[in-house]
């Protein structure tokens, strides 16, 4: 029985253009765009430009790029865009942990203005006062939201912000002469994979804390893990379960007691803006994903930005440059005494910073708090309804409210019907929905993670619930239709075995021609 | 919202009182505050975020933003000769049209079924880059060239099972900072000398420094100074004789006219695609590529997503999927290769559009135009009294270093005076390369007209005089 009785799912069908690979389009001699002819006086002065280049450095064969006229290229890519679901069209609450929210169009228009796009990062400071003002004020806003003392907007993603925290921890212990001894980073298994993987790049040994019976990171396990080898802790709160860890300050206290630093992965900040901050929980650092909580669009997987804030004592380690303001002029500050250097070129993903700034300023204090309150309201409404669907569960913290998302499980449904999370994902597509499993490892069996944010209306949330209920019902009554899904997608069932076969995998068209068509060998 | 208590923000539909009440009733609460019961009081923020009053209307928001952005002077309002890691190239209209499509702009991490188009477009991007580079494997883009070079270096150390890397001193100093931080402390990075007569790699130093501890050698072509490194085959032979890997950073814009690094022995090629249809955005528009040959030992060391074309149950239908997903940190956390997350996919799609638009002849035309215009600029500037071009005898692509030392003026002074003439002069190298003292890196691309270059020359003559 559907928990949202009168709501119907859509008789959806995704656009299917059966679009060829671009190399199969066009004919020799077609042109997509023309460049200007060289001016006669320049040609008279320097010739064809190639004569100065040593012969062996000149390309022999032109690159085997496609030759296609302009409208046909446009059409090809428009069709590919239609074969992509996209959050603007989708009720994208099935991509839990990723905070899929509305990315306001006005912000996009402003961020694509030549006043931003046509700026070179090495321009004289006097000519970039506007964009530096945006940087500085975004830093100030994020200080208010976190309680920390200074932000760098340089990291290009959450993962790169984690790497930056790892670098700062290293520099901090180096400064204290303890770097060699402190070679362990502690994180939790429910934190993002990069919380473990990024510090490992810099040589740290990783200790994963698993959840206790309540689904919270196990404090006893932390006691076991900490020692004079502890360099730091990377942790999310709430974790991807949506359960807020009320003992978080015990965690930071214990890490501090053994001399480590605490880094807060705020990927899940959307439910607690203005409600709980990094400062009160005694974190030394925290970062926000500007493409998640702060509305910059996800762009098929970036560009994104990870805004990293630190306590006063750690400012001296931040990557250069910082953006400062001396009362009359904004400036780039390279005078950071113990800087780790750089993590990304120039100053960061500038368009994401501008969009985050605009989003914050369009909401203000009350607006940000309302974002969080409604995100949490939506989530708990969704939780109640999802649990009314046969075969679902929400492991841990029974009877508790959750913050902004929940990691659910289909394990009961799988036991009873054989239908898995993957099958349901594929069937949800038939109704115009995306449903994601979860990050590995699957501590919660047959997982799925839903995060409705503040952006979706009740009607949309109900429609998503109706989709889940419909598929769950099918699992019990007509499992074949689920198993063979999707039926109304762009493509039919994929044959995936070649993806792990070195003789068959084809990451480019030229590799495909060689391996599958016996061509170009 | 301060003054308008009952205002419903356009971005928050369920803020409408009627809906809010209904949902609260459904959950069984009287106040949203109850949903936060699990957060202990001492962790609750009691203060007040000091944020400006919100700009609730789109009209106010737009004019506020435009007022701030109007304080910028752009490279369209001035003539710019800045490069050095971010370049002003022409961006075809179709590139923006495609990357502003809602579907591409707002998609994220969908499956190959509902996001087929995303996989398809990124596979095509990698494929067209593969043609340009003459290599069979190209990743879904990473953050920028700095990250691409860092990862290429890390890959080399894993493949060679050695921990020492030689890095040419004529790469971007900012990029070196990124590499150093990323590889600290697991790798030992040694500097490979530049021959300051030619601007090319010092082969004697390479022979002296390389050893059986060296995992790989990283250099860029063209170099940071714009010099075309024409000793590629000699360099890669020395590297391979030592069982190390040859890693080359390349500007894809140059590859319509210059031979790709794979032709002179590169094992891993990396670089930035910002020049391929992506606006500068004050340094925000970067994305990095990594390319290798299609050998298992290389492919298995990528941390990136690699999208592959696969069959479906319908004959002739193309599908896509992740090649060797188990390599990644998404699958294996710290036991995966480095780490992966959101990076710069939209710019990959855009660069694909760009390469399709330009095609083989467009890329040749582009390279030729840049060669001709930059050579013209070098020639004209070198005629100015007291101003020289460093490494003048070495062929260049797009960028070159101008020596102002004889003028008795600092680059910073010269650039300030140029700004008054609505010209952004070359990038000041006096801090990055103190040995070159008062020198600047100039960049000339297809967007520059003869008139722009002549104005620069006139401006410099006026200032020097």
How would you characterize the overall build of this protein?
The complex is a heterodimer of chains A (521) and B (465). The longest helix of chain A has 37 residues. In chain A, the strands form three sheets. In chain A, strands 1-7-6-5-4-2-3 form a seven-stranded mixed sheet, sandwiched between helices. A two-stranded antiparallel ribbon of chain A has the order 8-9. Chain A has a two-stranded antiparallel ribbon with strand order 10-11. Helices cover 34% and strands 10% of the residues of chain A. Among the domains of chain A are: 34 residues, no CATH class; 251 residues, Type I PLP-dependent aspartate aminotransferase-like (Major domain) (Aspartate Aminotransferase, domain 2, 3-Layer(aba) Sandwich), CATH 3.40.640; 27 residues, no CATH class. With 521 residues, chain A is α/β, with parallel strands linked by helices. The N and C termini of chain A lie far apart (58 Å). Chain B has 465 residues and is an alpha/beta fold. Chain B has three domains: 48 residues, no CATH class; 115 residues, Aspartate Aminotransferase, domain 1 (Alpha-Beta Complex), CATH 3.90.1150; 262 residues, Type I PLP-dependent aspartate aminotransferase-like (Major domain) (Aspartate Aminotransferase, domain 2). Helices cover 36% and strands 15% of the residues of chain B. In chain B, helix 3 packs antiparallel against helix 12 and helix 5 packs parallel to helix 12. The longest helix of chain B has 38 residues. The chains are: A alpha/beta (521), B alpha/beta (465). At the A-B interface, helix 1, helix 2, helix 3, helix 4 and helix 5 of A face helix 1, helix 2, helix 3, helix 4 and helix 5 of B.
